[in-house]
Design a protein that fits this description.
Layout (H helix, E strand, L loop, with lengths): L1 E6 L2 E6 L9 H17 L2 E5 L3 E4 L4 H4 L3 H19 L5 E5 L1 E4 L1 H8 L2 E5 L5 E2 L11 H10 L5 H6 L6 H7 L4 E3 L4 H13 L3 H11 L1 H11 L3
Parallel strand pairs: 2-3, 3-5, 4-6, 5-7, 6-8, 7-9
Antiparallel strand pairs: 1-2
């Protein structure tokens, strides 16, 4: 489900559940454990899916069991995403395929995102499937998606191809599909050279207002 490996001092957390890399309880638990380990032994972190698929978002089977079940999973996901969004070390994403809903939010929570030049979709489809984007997702989207595109991207569930995803703020650059991980590793090593004593505090300062609103939304959860 989750493969953790160290490439030098960079931790790679590779999601592969054999299906759509759904963020269910087991995957979220594994990702949190991976972050725990990476925080101890790595200088930067890379999230990766597999060729053709990054993540399709929250586990729909779990979400459809009951309103209580859905809320429990979303809250768990929110705490994970908040940790990624405020993680004190560089966080990168190697995106080689579809990133939908919470999968797209994981891209938005990461610092640097390298995508494959290929055919796939990226976007927040919550409105289209009758779901209200929870506060953690709204804040991360408002932080990373340029204001002029927020109505289409957040409210109107617009899906984007890889090139458009760069313009919309989901990805930072595109490379040949065979080079995605190598390029992401190169960026991770470069970012690792920045002083950790300033990188973490600067990230918190840059995202402070968004982080605080997410924390407030989770205060009673």
């Amino acid at each position: 489900m989750l493969n953790y490996q160290l490439e030098g001092k960079v931790a790679i957390l590779e999601m592969n559940d054999g299906k759509v890399n759904a963020l269910g309880h087991d995957m979220l638990d594994a990702l949190q454990e991976g972050l725990d380990k990476a925080e101890r032994e790595a200088t930067a972190i890379i999230f990766r899916g597999r060729q053709g698929l990054f993540s399709a978002g929250f586990d729909l089977k779990e979400m459809q069991k009951s309103p209580e079940s859905a809320q429990t999973l979303v809250t768990k996901g929110a705490r994970f995403m908040l940790r990624v969004f405020s993680f004190p070390k560089p966080v990168l994403a190697a995106c080689e395929g579809h990133a939908i809903a919470a999968g797209a939010l994981l891209l938005l929570a990461s610092d640097t995102r390298v995508g494959a030049q290929a055919e796939y979709n990226v976007g927040l489809n919550e409105t289209a499937i009758g779901v209200i984007l929870p506060p953690f997702g709204m804040e991360m989207a408002k932080c990373r998606i340029p204001k002029r595109y927020q109505t289409a991207a957040i409210l109107q569930s617009q899906m984007y191809n890889a090139e458009e995803a760069v313009t919309m703020g989901y990805l930072d650059k595109l490379v040949d599909g065979s080079e995605v991980l190598d390029v992401t590793l190169k960026h991770a090593n470069q970012l690792s050279e920045l002083p950790g004593g300033s990188y973490g505090p600067m990230k918190l300062a840059l995202r402070h207002e968004f982080i605080e609103r997410v924390k407030a939304s989770l205060a009673d959860s």
